[in-house]
Design goal:
This protein is mostly helical and 71 residues long. It contains 3 helices and no strands.
Length: 71
Amino acid sequence: MSLLNIRENYNFIEAVINSFGSGCGFALALIIFSAIREKMQLNDVPKAFEGTALALVTVGLLSMAFMGFQV
């Protein structure tokens, strides 16, 4: 975060707000990912997608969804 704040020439208040927002976004992504994983544990998942494979597919779909928020 500090390198992004320096590159964008943010003052102290802007840097604090930017860092707080980034932390909130990361926490939101973790909460969404854990909720999806909990739902997947309740469903029947094909053998090929159990474990890490399902996690990678889920992360890929989440990353495409979050790309819609880019400016």
